[in-house]
Amino acid sequence: KTMLELPGGQVVDLDTVKNIAKELNEFGVILEEGKGLNYSGIDSIVDNKVEYHRIVVPRGGEYNLKLADGTDVWMFADSEIRFPTRFKGNKREVYLEGEAYFEVIADTKRPFYVQVGEVKIQVLGTAFNVSAYREDQQVEVALLRGKVGLDLPGNEYVLAPGEIATWNKGDGLATLRKGDVESIVDWKTGRFNFEDMPLDKL
Q1: How large a percentage of the chain has pLDDT more than 90?
Q2: In this structure, what are the phi and psi dihedrals at residue 21, rounded to the nearest 5 degrees?
Q3: What per-residue confidence (pLDDT) applies to 8?
Q4: How many CB atoms lie within 10 A of CB 18?
Q5: What is the pTM of this model?
Q6: Whole-angstrom distance between the N-terminal and C-terminal Cα of the chain?
Q7: Which end of the chain is more exposed for a tag (fewer CB within 10 A), N or C?
Q8: Distance between CA 186 and CA 164 in Å, rounded?
């Protein structure tokens, strides 16, 4: 089951989150029917307190989340994201482990960062997929539209739409290539493409 971890360690089963929907609403978080949690109304709450929430998606699950700035995040199976309930200061930053697809709301004054282990991804407003499972030897970023910068240990890259960057955790080498980025995010719409995929990846 997909779980929401609140500050202080309280863990909530999101399959039964309706039980605490009232508490979430008072906090400015909306439970959107058939979609997931929506934090975009949180700035209407008077206090300026910033807390971190964490969503953990199990194997076989998926989850959609709207962050406080309106950015949409689709979480894939066996993944987790840690994020602030509201974005303050001159940047927006979240922490990912696993795989997720992002559609980031543009804000040139506050760049958006996704921290994935040693890799930091910077965006201003774009759509991209990140695959960074703990057990995998590589981190992969596929850009659908917009522009992202990758800050890797020892190197920095800028991706253009249609490009895929892969960083190997073992040897620290990075590659940049053109590819079918649309097929990479087919999982978001419930489709899976196995063309040219090695059997050990199925």
Answers
A1: 52
A2: -55, -40
A3: 82
A4: 11
A5: 0.86
A6: 22
A7: C
A8: 15
